[in-house]
Amino acid sequence: MTTEKDIVSIATESAKTLTAAVKAADLVKTLQGAGPFTVFAPTDAAFAAIQKDVDNLLKPENKAKLAKVLTFHVVSGKLLASQLKDGQELTTVEGEKIKVSIKDNKVSVGGAHVTSADILASNGVIHVIDKVLMPKVEVAAHA
């Protein structure tokens, strides 16, 4: 069953930090697009664990870096948990790859554990993860 809500609408209900970051990076329209997208959505607790980096990334001058971090959590296409395979590499919208690991029926991507899978949206699917994935991006305030 597919919901009428898009990925951003669903995230707004339960992932406040992710939603704020998506808005700050001007990615709302993208993630409300037709898709389909698979989003690995970090929990608010996952963002809180790296609060200093989050605060830095939310600064207007770091908008491009923030967009890079966020698009590292998005894969084109709609991939349900049952379609993910151990050792599979997924190419993110950001351009880098993240590796899928399945052990004892528990799915991980890029070292983050999927805590809630297959949250269906009108334009894709969301898998909640317990860690923020970081692409190879310089997060420091100086260049």
Estimate the helix proportion, in percent: 25-40%
The rounded distance between the terminal residues' Cα atoms is 47 Å
- Helices, by number, come to 6
Low-confidence stretches: none
Task: Give the overall average pLDDT.
Answer: 90
Q: Could you say which overall geometry the principal axes of the C-alpha atoms support?
A: globular
Q: Which structural class fits the helix and strand makeup?
A: alpha+beta
Oligomer: single chain
Share in β-strands: 25-35%
User: Using only CA atoms, what is the Rg?
Assistant: 14 Å
- Name of the CATH class: Mainly Beta
Question: How many domains is the backbone divided into?
Answer: 1
CATH topology label = FAS1 domain
Biggest sheet details: 7 strands, mixed
Corresponding CATH superfamily? FAS1 domain
* CATH architecture classification: Roll
**What sequence of helices (H) and strands (E) makes up the elements?**
HHHEHHHEEEEEE
How would you write the strand order of the largest sheet? 2-1-7-6-5-4-3
Describe the structure.
This protein is of the alpha+beta class and 143 residues long. The protein has helices at 7-14, 16-24, 28-31, 44-48, 51-57, 63-71; strands at 37-42, 74-76, 89-91, 97-103, 106-109, 112-121, 124-129. It is globular, with a radius of gyration of 14 Å. It has one domain: FAS1 domain. The longest helix is centred in the N-terminal third of the chain and has 9 residues, at 16-24.
Short summary:
Helix content is 29%, strand content 27%.
Write the layout of secondary structure elements.
Layout (H helix, E strand, L loop, with lengths): L6 H8 L1 H9 L3 H4 L5 E6 L1 H5 L2 H7 L5 H9 L2 E3 L12 E3 L5 E7 L2 E4 L2 E10 L2 E6 L14
